[in-house]
Design brief:
The protein is of the alpha+beta class and 209 residues long. The chain has seven helices and six strands; from the N terminus they run αααβββαββααβα. 30% of the residues lie in helices and 10% in strands. The chain has a two-stranded antiparallel ribbon. Helix 3 packs antiparallel against helix 4 and helix 4 packs across helix 6. The radius of gyration is 17 Å and the shape is globular. The model has no long low-confidence stretch (mean pLDDT 93). This is FOLR1 protein.
Length: 209
């Protein structure tokens, strides 16, 4: 039984999900761009994907951050980091779930985010403006990029997402879970870390696997 448990556990560690832009398996990517550089030693994303993660209207998903006017840079960097984590991290195995969409077979669900990462995201985005709670679905795509659905009102994030937990848990339909765990606790995934200190999310994936 122990061997079977080990095999299952190992299959949750150092893996890439089966999704639109992910590599089939993680490996070094020397040329990762910008905020995605944290994962260059071992990544599920290519250099191209990392470059596109920083574009306002990237071909990754044709998603427009500025659907209710320009998103402030200090807020946008969290969405770029969120994209880098999603596309590049090989440490999300314990939270990979089946997805029944045309563009991906797997997604992440309930990834335990460190409290600081979630709070800072909310703090920096509270005055940004959006018209939707769940950004995964319900947009008007007739122009080829996401626009607010008819009748949806643009409001500041702090009214759409009254708490940091609401933002992290609702915006990508449950991909993240707000936790009271702190960075460095080994119990939560960090969107941000210092690569010189190594990747703290490896130990977190091991703990949950």
């Amino acid at each position: 039984a122990t061997t079977a448990v080990m095999v299952t556990r190992d299959s949750l560690l150092n893996v890439c999900m089966d999704a639109k832009h992910h590599k089939t398996e993680p490996g070094p990517e020397g040329q990762l761009y910008g905020q995605c550089v944290l994962w260059k030693d071992n990544a599920c994303c290519t250099a191209n994907t990392s470059m596109e993660a920083h574009q306002d209207q990237s071909y990754l998903y044709n998603f427009n951050w500025d659907h209710c006017g320009a998103m402030p840079e200090k807020c946008k960097r969290h969405f770029i980091q969120d994209t880098c984590l999603y596309e590049c991290s090989p440490n999300l195995g314990p939270w990979i779930d089946q997805a029944d969409t045309s563009w991906r077979k797997e997604r992440i669900r309930d990834v335990p985010l460190c409290q600081e990462d979630c709070e800072q995201w909310w703090e920096d985005c509270q005055d940004a403006v959006t018209c939707k709670v769940n950004w995964h679905k319900g947009w008007n795509w007739t122009t080829g990029t996401n626009q607010c659905p008819k009748g949806a009102m643009c409001q500041k994030f702090k009214f759409v997402f009254p708490t940091a937990a609401a933002l992290c848990e609702q915006i990508w339909s449950g991909s993240y879970r707000y936790t009271s765990h702190h960075r460095g606790s080994g119990r939560c995934i960090q969107m941000w870390f210092d690569p010189a200190q190594g990747n703290p999310n490896i130990a977190v994936a091991q703990y949950y696997a």
